[in-house]
Specification:
The protein has 226 residues and is α+β, with helices and mostly antiparallel strands. The protein has a single domain, classed as Glutaredoxin, CATH 3.40.30.10. The chain is 42% helix and 19% strand. The protein has helices at residues 3-30, 88-104, 120-130, 144-148, 179-189, 194-201, 212-225, and strands spanning 46-53, 59-62, 67-69, 77-83, 109-115, 138-139, 156-160, 166-171. Strands 1-8-7-4-5-6-2-3 form an eight-stranded mixed beta sheet. The chain starts with a helix and ends with a helix.
Amino acid sequence: MTAETTSAMSSVGSFRIRVAAACMAGATIALALPQPAAAREALKNFVMHEASQAVPAIDFADEKGQAHSLAEFKGKVVVLNIWATWCVPCRKEMPALDRLQAALGGPEFAVVPISIDRSIETAAKFYQDIGIGHLPIYVDVSGKAVRELHAVGLPTTLILDRAGREIGRVVGPAEWDSPEVADLLKPIIANEGEPIRRADRRQPARSDAAGPFARGFQWLKALLSN
């Protein structure tokens, strides 16, 4: 084994350790996020942004090794899920995401799961083992999606509008096939997202901008960037 190979393997292993640690911390941080009433029960760790946010360009490959990007999904409302087979909460929520895609997927909406596993074969085997039949298989073996999207843990799920901009996110697992999630997504798909934002703004304002939450969030971002 060459020195270069050993170094590369060490780098990948270190990255997975940092993400695994962030998974644990992310579950705690998620409890501090504001919750819109429409999804309070099913998405207890959901935050809807006051204004849509630009999403970095993310590249990933399908099961045939062909390259894809988020730009391909513009025009659709997207539930972008960052996950891995070694993340236990990710494994548990994947069937619910599959049912969500089966229920709402089409020209107006798509669930886009991006695995950060080391190979497409690993993700494909997991799909086969648990009977995932409606979701595409996408993999980002570089793990850049976690860093570029500032994911503080796995799973992290972004909701993107038709312009490809982030309008909200969930840190941690969620009941994606629940009626509450459908009630949240259907107005967004129908371009009626503003009433949801108004409902969210009625939640109590946070005052933790300079407190432990903000410091912890910045620490985790720095951890994943190293």
